[in-house]
Amino acid sequence: MYKAILLMSGLLMMLGGCAALTPSEIEQKQETLDTMAAKAIEGLIKEDPALQAELDKAVGYAVANMKVTKVPVVGAGGGEGVLVDAKTQERRYFTVSRFDIGGGWGVRSYKALMIIHSEKVLEEFKGGSWTFEAGAEASAGTAAAEGGSGALNQDITMHLLADGGASATVTARVIHASIDDALTYMPSEKDSMR
After folding, report:
1. What is the pLDDT of residues 27-46, one digit of tens each?
2. pLDDT per position as a tens digit, 41-79
3. Cα angle vertex 105, ends 103, 108, to 5°?
4. What is the C-alpha to C-alpha distance for residues 31 and 27, in angstroms, rounded to an integer?
């Protein structure tokens, strides 16, 4: 029994060690997400030049790379992105999960830009937050549109840039974003925060 416990402990430690990113992998992942965000913003501004003025006035913004699958009654999706504090230029990296219930179908990928107009919302996002909203979405190829319950999101505006795929949904959805501490802070920074 002792040998079995020792073997299992060793295997778990090896698996846990393999899951951690090295500092160079962290930097590479951060660079990939920063590049994705810059290209998404550039594409959205190209479609709507007035968006630059909105970004200039914002307290922060987040850009996520999302993938969503929807079948007639349920759907799910996920992604990752970067949150930027406009004042300090501090960047925090995050993961997003999404669960939909309602009518619709399709598979699509898109970039979502959330422009944050409130310090309170920015601080909540930095800590990770849940958002519930009912909405309608449609996309085909690289065109996308989304309508949501604006009363729940008065301090943010959303802009979508479709990568491809097609979908049409009318759903209630729960979206959860949480800061990825392992990706946001380098190991030496984590140690100094303790």
Report:
1. 999 999 999 999 999 999 99
2. 999 999 899 999 999 999 999 999 998 888 878 888 899
3. 130
4. 6
* Residue 10 within a domain: no
On whether residue 4 sits in a domain, the answer given is no
Given a contact cutoff of 8 angstroms between Cβ atoms, the answer to whether 93 and 21 are in contact is no
Q: Count the neighbouring beta carbons within 10 Å of the beta carbon of residue 77.
A: 20
Its sign, for the CA torsion 31, 117, 64, 39, is: negative
| Residues of the domain holding 60 | 22-193
Strand-pairing partners, residue 13, are: none
- The distance of Cα 47 from the centroid of its chain, to the nearest Å, equals 21
Which one-letter amino acid corresponds to residue 113?
L
DSSP assignment string, 160-186: EEEEEEEEEEEEEEEEEEEE-HHHHS-
Residue 165 located in a structural domain: yes
Q: Model confidence over 100-138: pLDDT tens digits?
A: 777 777 787 889 899 999 999 899 888 876 565 645 554
Q: Retrieve residue 69's tokens.
A: 């699958």
SS3 state of residue 117: coil
**Three-class DSSP category at 78:** strand
Residue 14 domain flag: no
What's the pLDDT at 166? 52
Question: Measured between alpha carbons, how far is 157 from 19 in angstroms, rounded to an integer?
Answer: 35
Question: Looking at the 3D structure of the chain, how many domains does it have?
Answer: 1
Q: Round to whole Å and give the CA distance between 148 and 159.
A: 12
